[in-house]
Design goal:
Elements (H helix, E strand, L loop, with lengths): L6 E4 L2 E4 L8 E8 L3 H12 L4 E5 L6 H5 L1 H18 L1 H5 L8 H12 L6 H8 L4 E4 L2 E3 L4 E4 L2 E11 L4 E2 L15 H6 L6 E5 L3 H12 L3 E5 L11 H13 L3 E3 L4 E7 L2 E6 L4 E4 L1 E4 L3 E2 L26 E3 L2 E3 L10 H22 L9 H17 L17 E4 L4 E6 L2 H6 L4 E7 L4 H6 L6 E7 L4 E9 L2 H13 L4 H5 L11 H7 L4
The structure holds flavin-adenine dinucleotide and nicotinamide-adenine-dinucleotide.
């Protein structure tokens, strides 16, 4: 047998003849992109006994463990320890703090990312029975995915979990400069003396506070008239006040016009002739999916949008699902995980129906497991009826910006609720006026803001800012998710003296 591929050279390009066409390998499911969402879907379907090919061009696990949630929260933990030590002054005597970034950089390398090596994550997937392929893949017609020369034909579905990349604004000169994205900021071993942060959203604020607490002179430049503009105005004020207290300069309403880079560092000019200079520039102005690379046209799906539109079972089209950031339903790890659970249930349900209830793998125990996963998910689905696949419901979508104070939020903001014509009531209280806030006696700020639907008598949104704002949020998420009647919330017992007891105070202040 010849080892040479069959074909010929035409016009300088190798062309395979018909007999040499790469034969697609038939598998059950192909998952393209093994970030948080893709890895979860691929692993669980493999555990259920399906033949699953997982394709990843970079690191298995995606942005969250290597350049996102985990290392950034490790940085925040370190920065908060510094801030807490500095608070000893007014509370417990004296403490001297000598911040040292080397400790953080080492922890990120050794404990969080294994030096940006994903061998453990790959094994986590293959140990579940999945087959791992390293490379950039794309759709290649209905049911087909190509990775270089390899082609896979998926019998039961394709899942797209290709995530997002930083969205870099078209500011004159910017593209030619060595600006940082979140990746360089997370990987940094030696801190710069000064840092310009373009974008006052979640990433910008979290990292700005971290670097400021380690002694970097930080300026945040935001185009809108407030930072953290997707949340309540009170949340923006609290975050801005906290960052300013850490020495961060915050400039809002600045439209970046031009960026230059020279031996002295970066100069950013605004359209109103504002000028900002710093050694480094971090661009964190949002994220975008790169749909044009996925071969969507080969399955008749429009690749022109910002995200991949999906239905409430995360289906893009027949036999194709999408999970995580690429769906545009909220760029959070918990959304990717939530969606992954729905997809697993739907793929298994789909497969069971396609095969008329027959055993998909020929192993009764595996089918039992698969059906078990599907039905237990159905049982936990808030809006799915018993026995059906749960449907995605983002009403009670929680988010936490891990600044200090943490800004936790769930559901609608007051403005969003009013725009929807809801008969809105709002209740607000400052944490400082609560017993626990007073005892805490620090420079931290915090509050609880509740947004209620007066006609339905339930909470539809809430913000919890404070030292444990993200944890206090959990009670409010349950209230919004389960539509707990306000009368019941008012007659609950709130432990004394906790931060969450301020929820009871805010409930008492609900007014139209
Ligand atoms: C600095 C930062 C901090 C964050 N902090 C938090 C936080 O505290 N809490 C939170 O909930 N969320 C946080 N996030 C968001 C979180 O990281 C994302 O929501 C999450 O990673 C989304 O997972 P995903 O699977 O959708 O996509 P990703 O994690 O982006 O993974 C997609 C994967 O697909 C791969 N891929 C893309 N195209 C192809 C292709 N053609 N072929 C093969 N592979 C491909 C990519 O290489 C990547 O590994 C943070 C993000 C950042 C940047
Ligand atoms: N704690 C968390 O859960 C967490 C932390 C970090 C990131 N994330 C996720 O990652 C996503 C991306 O984060 P992000 O901070 O990049 O995006 P973002 O959308 O949260 O914020 C981007 C900010 O940049 C501003 N901006 C856009 N163009 C600009 C320009 N030309 N000049 C100045 N400002 C400009 C926007 O107005 C916005 O305030 C978030 O939406 C969030 O879902 C989550």
């Amino acid at each position: 047998m010849s080892l040479l591929p069959r074909g010929r050279v035409t016009g300088g390009r190798w062309v395979r003849d018909a007999g040499g066409m790469a034969q697609p390998e038939i598998v059950d499911v192909v998952v393209l992109g093994l970030g948080v969402g893709g890895e979860e879907v691929a692993g669980r379907l493999a555990e259920a006994g399906l033949t699953v090919v997982g394709i990843e061009r970079n690191l298995v696990g995606g942005e969250c463990p290597y350049w996102g949630c985990i290392p950034s929260k490790m940085m925040i933990r370190a920065a908060n320890a510094i801030a807490e030590a500095r608070r000893v002054g007014g509370l417990a005597g004296t403490a001297q703090v000598s911040p040292d970034w080397a400790t953080v950089a080492k922890r990120i390398r050794e404990e969080a990312t294994d030096g940006w090596d994903d061998r453990v994550a790959v094994r986590r997937f293959t140990d579940k029975g999945g087959r791992f392929v390293r490379g950039g893949g794309r759709l290649d017609g209905p049911g087909r995915v190509r990775v270089g020369e390899q082609v896979f034909q998926a019998r039961h579905g394709i899942v797209l979990g290709t995530g997002t990349r930083p969205s870099v604004p078209p500011v004159d000169g910017l593209a030619d400069t060595p600006y940082w994205t979140n990746r360089e900021a997370i990987e940094v071993e030696e801190l710069p003396g000064s840092l310009l942060v373009l974008g006052g959203g979640a990433i910008g604020l979290e990292l700005a506070q971290v670097f400021a607490r380690f002694g970097v002179r930080v300026t945040v430049v935001e185009a809108l008239d407030r930072v953290l503009a997707v949340e309540e105005p009170e949340a923006s004020e609290a975050a801005a006040a906290a960052l300013r207290a850490d020495g961060v300069e915050i400039r809002t309403g600045v439209k970046a016009a031009r960026v230059e880079h020279g031996t002295e560092g970066f100069t950013l000019r605004g359209t109103e002739d504002e000028e900002f200079t710093a050694e480094r520039l971090l661009v964190v102005t949002g994220r975008r999916a790169h749909l044009d690379e996925l071969g969507l046209e080969t399955i008749g799906v429009d690749a022109g949008g910002r995200y991949l539109p999906v239905d409430d079972r995360l289906r893009v089209t027949e036999g194709v699902w999408a999970v995580g950031d690429v769906t545009g339903e909220g760029a959070f790890t918990h959304i990717a995980m939530y969606q992954a659970a729905i997809i697993v249930a739907d793929v298994l349900d789909h497969l069971r129906r396609a095969e008329g209830g027959a055993d998909p793998s020929g192993t009764a125990s595996v089918v039992g497991g698969a059906v078990g996963v599907a039905s237990s998910l159905a049982a936990t689905g808030s809006s799915g009826s018993a026995g059906s696949v749960p449907r995605a419901d983002y009403r009670a979508l929680p988010r936490v910006t891990f600044t200090d104070p943490e800004i936790g939020a769930v559901g609608l903001t007051e403005e969003q609720a009013r725009e929807r014509g809801i008969n809105v009531q709002v209740g607000f209280t400052q944490l400082a006026s609560s017993t626990r806030g007073w005892i805490n006696k620090t420079d931290e700020v915090g509050f609880i803001k509740l947004v209620a639907d007066a006609d339905q008598g339930v909470l539809i949104g809430a913000t919890s800012a404070g030292p444990a704002g993200g944890e206090v949020l959990s009670a409010l998420v349950v209230a919004v998710h389960a539509a707990v009647p306000l009368t019941q919330l008012r007659h609950m017992i709130y432990a004394y003296p906790t931060f969450h007891r301020a929820i009871s105070e805010a409930l008492g202040k609900l007014r139209s």
